[in-house]
Amino acid sequence: MAASIASLLEEISGVEEPIEELQVLKTALFSIPVSALRDCVSGQRFNVIFSLLNSNQREQVELCVDILERILMALSPVCLVQNYKMELHAGLTHPNETVKILALTQIGRIVEHPDAVTDILNNHDILRAVIHCIGEEKIAVAKQAIQCLSKMSHSKPGLDKLFQRDLLKVMKDVMAMSDIIRYRIYELVVEISSVSPISLGYCANSSFISQLLGELTGDDVLVRATAIEMVTTLAHSQHGRQYLFELVGSLVSSSTAMEILGSQHYISLKTYLREGPYYVSAVASVSTEGAD
Question: Which family is this sequence assigned to (predicted)?
Answer without folding.
Answer: Belongs to the proteasome subunit S5B/HSM3 family.
